[in-house]
Each structure stands twice: as structure tokens, then as C-alpha cells.
Please model this.
Amino acid sequence: MSAAPLHRTNIDAAVWMACDSFRGVVDPSIYKDYVLTMLFLKHVTDAWQEHFDRYREQYGEAATELIEELLKTERFVLPPSASFYTLYKARFEPGNGERIDRALHALEDANLSKLRDVFQDISFNANKLGDEPQKNELLRHLLEDFARPELDLGPSRVGSIDVIGSAYEFLIKHFASTSGKKAGEFYTPPEVSSLLAQIVDPQEGDEICDPACGSGSLLVQCAGLIRNRTGSRRYALFGQEAIGGTWALAKMNLFLHGEDNHRIEWGDTIRNPKLLASDATLRQFDVVVANPPFSLEKWGYDSVKSDKHRRFLRGTPPRTKGDYAFVLHMIETLRPGVGRMAVVVPHGVLFRGAAEGSIRRKLIEENLLDAVIGLPEKLFYGTGIPAAILVFRKDKRHDDILFIDASREFETGKSYNVLRDEDRRRVLEAYRMRKPQPRFAYLATLAEVARNEFNLNIPRYIEPAAQEGSVGMAELRIERERLMHEWAETEEAMVMHLEALGVDVAATGSIEPPAAA
Model:
């Protein structure tokens, strides 16, 4: 007799309680890999076991060979040694870490087309869990946590594989909230992912790519939009992620959401793009979305001259700021005539000069930029700065750029702000209507943007809402960043002039900007 149906909130609470074994002993940025991997193994095991029991009831215990053949058609083949329950039975014996690692490798070997290399950066036998006695006890508790009846994750009990995927996303969110800056490596808040996905409006049959996919939440959101509208899974998901452990999270996350039609590559997108149509040609997509790392310092500047994919013909981004490296890469992967793209960037991308100003000008003159959407501050884990969404389209038919100031559309949380449903709806309605709204939306012609020297700083186009007694901190931060960059550019120009006059700048010293308040 099957267990009672399990609701999403019950799964979320039970899985979060499973983290108790590690709290106070291991840092969340480390133990998240173990808890999330165990969730994946438990669901695969419970799904396998439920189907095995059903076949045995249907065909009888004697039909061993038939049942084995039928089980080969499952989404995942589960060798006996890889079963969660095999590990659970041996939990009091020494060597839990080594046993779990062997089980994961056996699961990978039995499902190479789906799980090749997924577990190679995740070792339950690692010293980071403490010495052998402590490690063995921690892992025993973890196995016992997942063996509780409320974490029976068989399909008949959870009802939908998306429930498991949602629990996975729930855990990633909570790990991100406790991991500080490290969270930026793998997590985009679901409210932001949802807004990006709705802006690019993925359709049935689309090929969708995130070149800095983290844990895959943006791809999951895009796929969910198509399924919810059409009931179809006729689309394909693509991604690339530089960090091995995060790449593994993305693979497991997509599988737990039932997204088998995906290709997620492990590697540095700028230095070594792996989603290729041929050796020298980037693959192109209908939809491209990303929340790449903000102003990445070591992004691959020295490899630009040898870039065979011709991504930097519009200019080379600064050595210590990789924002436009990702933007230019994404532009080149848009399918001609239909491609649309949304990317999260820090506000400096809108107004910084020099090389970035030149790149920005060319993108605007080519009429690729469709919209600039200012977001509230403190939305992203690990940084309090406000960000913006840039929307580019290869199917653009109008000669203007829409500016939206959504910097005040949020709900204040304990540590971070949250985009509410009504906030996202307002942004989407403004984007789709494409009409001016006082202090919220403005439609600028390309000529007007050119008169502003291709500066996209939102306050140049939208008057900030009135403040009661003080200027908003978000505006102050943006303005301070703009002034600091102007100072740096002025100093650079002055140094060049002095050197041209034969002045030894190194001996005389350089001008320093005023200290931050």
C-alpha cells in the first residue's frame, strides 16, 4: 500500500531538517553539495524501488529477467550497490564516506550518457568533513535523516517530479542565503530568474542557452514557462558553467525537474566556449539568458587576440572588468532574425567610458539594445549593489530603447530585498506596452541616446521618484561609481599626456581619487 501523498512544503521542511547533521560542524558552502547529492540519490532510489515493486506485483517474483529488462528503461539505472538503502543498512559500519563515493561512481557508470563526471568533484570521503570517526558519524546521521518516512520520494507519493525539483531549488536558495559572496557562484533568486524568462518569452521548439548557468535556475524557469503554457517538452536547454561543483548542481537540478533534453558543459565560457556548431563557429540559440559574475577581474583578457570565434570585433573589454566579455559572447550566440537575450549586469556597464563606452556605442548603433531595466538593490546574495537587466533582440523592428526604473519595486526582507509578483507584473506590462510612464518608464530614440554620448544611466532618462528628506542609497551608490570611473579615466588621460611630454610618472606619482566616505 502506497504512502500518503506528500506536499511540497512537507518535503522542503524535511529536507531542510536533514541539514541539521552538519550545522555548526561544516560550513554551508561545503555541506550543500552533500545534502543536495543525497537528495538526488534518494529520489533516484525511491523511484527505482517503486517501479521495481510495481513490476514484481504485476508479473510475480519469479519473473526476474523480465523485471530486469523493464527496469533498464527507467530514466536512471540503479545498480544494487548504488541504492540509498544499501548504504543505509551499512551506516553503523566504518567507511560510510568511501561507500557513498563508490555508490555514486557506480550510479554514474550505469548512466554515463546522463551522469558522466557529475560526481567527480563531490567526495563524501573528503577530509573537509573531519577525521574518520566524526565523518562516519556525520554521514550516518545524514543517511538516517533521509531514511525518515516523510522523505519517501517515490513518484506516487510526490505526485510530480517538479516537486522534487522545487525542493532542490528550495535548498539551493537557503544555502545561498547563508553562503554570502560564495552564493553568487551558483544562485540567481527565483524572482529574478522568473522576470528574465518572461522578458525573453521562450516558445515551444526554442533552443535556450545560459552561458553562465550556475545551478541552472534560469534554464528551469524558461522551460517551466513553455510547459505551463503548452504542456509540451519540445525545446532544448543548453548551458556552460566554469565551476565543477556548480556544474554538477546544474546537472542534478535539471534532472530533478525532469529536464532530460539538456546539454550542460563544464568549462570557462570566455576562454573555452564549448557550445559550438563547428570548431570555429559558436552555436546560436533562439533565447539566451544569464546572470554572469559581476565585473569579473580575471575573465580572460590575454586570450582575446587568439579568439577564433570573433566575439570581440566591437572592442576588447577592460582587463579587470569582464561584464562586456559575457555580453559580447551572448550577442554572438543569438540566432539571426529571431534571437532575444536578457542579461543581468552591474550599473557600471550602463555608463563606464573608455573601452566599455566604445563597445556600448556600437551595440546601440547596431540597434541591438531593446531595453534597460533598473532593479532594486540587495536582490542578489553576496552583493548589495543594485543591478540592471539589458535586453537585446535580433528581431528588433523599432529605433528606440525602453528604460524602466524598477529600483523601488520590491519588498524589504530580513537581509535581502524581494521582487514581488506585482513588481514583476508592472515591469513586464511596461516592457510589453512600450509606452512612457511618469518616473517609471521612458522611450528614448537612438538619436537622444547618441546626444547623451551613449550613456545609459537610467536617471538621465527617468526622473527619480521624490525622496522624503534624503536621496536614495541606490542612487548615491550609482552616482558615486560613475564619478569614480570618470576620475579614473581623467587620471589615465593625464598620465598619457605627461608621458608624451617625457615626464617620469612613476617618479612623480599619480593622482589619487578622494578617499571613500
